[in-house]
Design brief:
It is a single chain. It contains 2 helices and no strands.
């Protein structure tokens, strides 16, 4: 039981602190001042090569 108690104490204190710091770091990274253009490019990348609407696959059924 000694190992369990040690790991439980470690998880309750230091690992929780580490995960909280990782979460805050990810949030700061996502909202950093220069990331707006990168995020906009990623959001619009699926439309990059699209010049017209997609063809209807069911045209032959009409």
């Amino acid at each position: 039981m000694e190992t369990y108690s040690f790991l439980r104490t470690l998880a309750d204190s230091w690992v929780l602190l580490l995960l909280t710091l990782v979460f805050v770091g990810v949030i700061i990274f996502a909202f950093r001042p220069g990331s707006r253009s990168v995020q906009k490019d990623a959001a619009e990348s699926i439309f990059r090569n699209e010049t017209r609407p997609a063809e209807d696959d069911n045209k032959d059924d009409r």
